[in-house]
Amino acid sequence: MVNSLTQQQKQDRAQRIGDAAFALFKTQSFGKITMAAIAKQAGVSKGTLFNYFESKESLFMTILLDGYHQYFDQLIIQINQRPSFDLADFLTLLLTETGNLIDHHSLLVRLNALRGPILERGANMSQTITHRQSFYATSERLATVIHDRISKLSVAEISQLFIVQTAMISGMMNLSGLDEFNHQRLFDHDFEHFKIHLKPDTVATFRYYLQGKYPNVNLVKP
């Protein structure tokens, strides 16, 4: 019974369920993953799984928000460890982390591309709001840490830059499969000019945006 567990035990079980779902997402599309498969992977019953998450969308929405929460926590540590950190450093960091997200956090990026069109349709609103509030608090803390080092940037402006970064990655990812159908290459058709090279094209596009917004800053190539 969920109610007989301590708060820490509940958190540990929820984490185990999230880890199991994330592991399945590494090899399967969202649509092919079932709650039964997640329960089996996590070593819990389907009834227990539904006690924690009422839908697959709620579970993956939680994974998404908590994942970015942890990622922002890591950025805070990274920035605090730098002896100096000016506007050029920050903009270069944004470009570097754009590539890092694509290379090393690709599952979070994939999930974020599903957030609006798929996850929000079936996710529990109350649960989503709780995790979004927690993520927002971390986002504000990250922006404040940067603002304290670069006073010319407001907390709102810094937050907006991270939103633009995320939007560019998700948008490019959604367009990167125009030469595919259901993740299969359309080898019988020539869609050469539909092809997008996700990491270099996204980083280049974001660089153009930042250079237009901050034309007096010399951006070092990450």
From TrEMBL:
Matching SUPFAM superfamilies: Homeodomain-like
DNA-binding stretch(es), residue numbering of this chain: 34-53
Pfam assignment, any one: TetR_C_34
InterPro entries: DNA-bd_HTH_TetR-type_CS, Homeodomain-like_sf, HTH-type_TetR-like_transc_reg, HTH_TetR, TetR_C_34
Domain HTH tetR-type: 11-71
Keywords recorded for this protein, A-Z: DNA-binding, Transcription, Transcription regulation
Database matches in PROSITE patterns: HTH_TETR_1, HTH_TETR_2
TM spans (from-to): none
Domain of life of the native organism: Bacteria
Protein name: TetR/AcrR family transcriptional regulator
Species of the source: Lactiplantibacillus songbeiensis
